[in-house]
């Protein structure tokens, strides 16, 4: 078994100084962070993520409707404990017109990355995590819908070997996934465990920093220099 098949890879294997992308499954307690991430997206980024521009009220409604018991939401946290990437893996029953699979369930993936975190492989790692979860959940077809102008997602789709169909300025892509095996199950479990440790460390560091800022006299140290 190759360790590279299990452990996360860095943003750039040729540049070890760059941090590693840790992808963690998010839960109900992260709903407010997900909302903050989407609200921070610029108008053009909202268009690319949702296929249309969504005002704040619609984004709030979308986040409120996330069902963590049915779908899977994955995130990448910055060193400042801020969500810089969100991947939403939505499951749905297979339609009668879907000839790509014989399974009862299919999945669709949507991803967004904060402007200051782009070019670091965040979107690709979120997609990889979504794909491996599908494999382990016995889902063999992963769909992705985006605007044809969304070159980042088109690149991710092509790199993953997805079959892409373009029509009327939009692109639909799907990826056929291999069945789960011991490596895929172990890989997802280990990556989630490592990401959970990273999440906890960053959360504790942020809490400690907030606590220190509220200590008497600490906020005045810089003022007296």
UniProtKB/TrEMBL annotation:
<dbReference type="InterPro" id="IPR000182">
    <property type="entry name" value="GNAT_dom"/>
</dbReference>
<protein>
    <submittedName>
        <fullName>GNAT family N-acetyltransferase</fullName>
    </submittedName>
</protein>
<dbReference type="Pfam" id="PF00583">
    <property type="entry name" value="Acetyltransf_1"/>
</dbReference>
<dbReference type="InterPro" id="IPR016181">
    <property type="entry name" value="Acyl_CoA_acyltransferase"/>
</dbReference>
<feature type="domain" description="N-acetyltransferase">
    <location>
        <begin position="21"/>
        <end position="181"/>
    </location>
</feature>
């Amino acid at each position: 078994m190759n360790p590279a098949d299990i452990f996360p890879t860095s943003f750039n294997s040729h540049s070890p100084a760059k941090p590693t992308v840790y992808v963690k499954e998010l839960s109900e307690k992260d709903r407010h962070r997900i909302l903050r991430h989407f609200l921070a997206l610029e108008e053009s980024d909202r268009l690319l993520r949702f296929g249309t521009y969504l005002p704040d009220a619609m984004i709030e409604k979308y986040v409120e409707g996330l069902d963590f018991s049915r779908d899977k939401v994955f995130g990448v946290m910055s060193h400042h404990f801020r969500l810089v990437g969100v991947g939403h893996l939505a499951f749905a029953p297979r339609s009668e017109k879907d000839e790509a699979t014989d399974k009862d369930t299919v999945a669709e993936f949507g991803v967004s990355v904060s402007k200051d975190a782009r070019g670091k492989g965040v979107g690709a790692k979120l997609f990889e995590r979504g794909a491996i979860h599908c494999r382990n959940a016995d889902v063999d077809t992963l769909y992705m819908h985006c605007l044809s102008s969304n070159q980042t997602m088109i690149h991710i789709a092509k790199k993953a070997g997805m079959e892409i169909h373009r029509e009327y300025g939009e692109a639909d892509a799907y990826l056929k996934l291999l069945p789960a095996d011991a490596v895929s199950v172990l890989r997802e479990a280990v990556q989630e465990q490592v990401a959970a440790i990273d999440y906890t460390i960053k959360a504790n560091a942020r809490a400690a920093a907030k606590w220190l800022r509220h200590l008497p006299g600490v906020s005045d140290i810089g003022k007296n220099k």
